[in-house]
Amino acid sequence: MPTLGPSLLFAAGLTLGVGAGVLYPRKSPSSPIPNVQLPPPPPEGGQHDSRALVPTAGGSAVLSHGFPGPIPDILKRTAYTAAYDRRLQHPAWTAEHLTATSLARTPPPSSPGTNPVPLDQARKGDTAGSGDKVVVKGDRSKSVFMEDEGIPEMFRAKLRDYFRSGYDRGHMVPAADAKISQQAMNETFYLSNIAPQVGDGFNRHYWAYLEDFCRRLTTNFEDVYVFTVPLYLPAKQADGKWRVSYEVIGNPPSISVPTHFAKVILASRPDFSYPQRPSSNPNYPSSSSSDTIKELAMGAFVLPNKEIPDQADLRSFVVPVEHVEKAAGLQLFNEQVKGKSKQLCAVTQCQVIVRRFDDARKSIGKK
Fold it and tell me: How far apart are the C-alpha atoms of 24 and 175, rounded to whole Å?
């Protein structure tokens, strides 16, 4: 049985220009493929002036002013990777790799062959202040929402677009997933990582519970890969026809408001049906080696962008991964990974923990 290590799993998921879809080649077609120069890969940060040959009925025509698109801006951050949709002006998807170490507030242990950082030095590097006052490296109070200047100005989400819009600036990659450094946390506040979300009952409540559920999976799995995908799903109208209807905010109206949001999760841990090999890194005695055979679990949750009761069962939002892929026009995982994966809710308890921290803050503020 082949082995699927963490790096391979994540690479297999990112088949949208930043991944390795060629790891599992498909069967070659019987008919020859014409020798045509393909459009260039997506730019990073939108700063790319491309020229490409595009096939036409009369042959190939040179687009002297660059390939027109559609082009997603591939954003490689400290704690995540994302593709920004210029038309909708929010992420098309974001991707994260969560581990117990990545979510920790302290620096990761040194790798083999290097001198370990003394404990007192590591603590000083991770905190600031004196006495009993401790400030963690990733401090949310120091982060502010900001426009992403790496996105062309014409397609860039602006701070004023959200002002009095009635929607929260909803993180696709939450700040709590990026505690490892202040820079990592700050990068989650770029508007290129934001989409309009209903505030009360969703962004501040049930959606936050789902984000917490993703983080808690790292207590049972070594590696947790999370895709967050804004969706635009059709609804049946009074005349019996299906239509996609959504609001657009901003001045002028430019930022689309998704009807739904999806979290697609792939989690892995050692498969104890096979002999296990411990990690060669002495700093990770409880981890398995990278070539250990893994047990894979996959799940997809689609939530409507509206108020959701706290008592709603998380399992009621489970959908096949293929449904998310088809609705978003993405291929998140190849068939080999899907075929080897168990249903996430069959191997772990899919349940949110209700924490109404914002209500507590409101109560304190009133007092």
Answer: 34
Q: Which of 229, 235, 126, 110 is nearest to 173 (CA)?
A: 229
Looking at residue 9, its pLDDT comes to: 44
Q: Using an 8 Å Cβ cutoff, are 204 and 168 in contact?
A: yes
Single out the residue of 61, 79, 98 nearest to residue 224, CA to CA. Answer: 98
**Burial of 130 by CB count in 10 Å (0-12 exposed, 13-18 middle, 19+ buried)?**
exposed
Residue-wise DSSP of 50-97: ---EEEETTEEEE-TT-------EEEE-SS-EEEEETTTTEEEEEEEE
Enumerate residues 6+ apart whose C-beta is below 8 A from 9: 223, 225, 266, 268, 294, 296, 337
Residues 158, 130: Cα–Cα separation, whole Å:
39
pLDDT digits over 192-239, tens only? 999 999 999 999 999 999 999 999 999 999 999 999 999 999 999 999
Tokens 């892929």 sit at which residue? 325
CA distance 6 to 3: 10
Give the chain's domains with CATH numbers: 6-21+67-366 (3.40.570.10)
Residue 309, phi then psi, degrees to nearest 5: -60, 145
Binding residues: 203
**Binding-site residue set for Mg(2+):** 203
Strand 223-231, strand 260-270: pairing: antiparallel
User: How many Å apart are CA 268 and CA 279, to the nearest integer?
Assistant: 15
Average pLDDT over residues 278-286: 56
Catalytically active residues are 171
> To which residue do tokens 């045509």 refer?
36
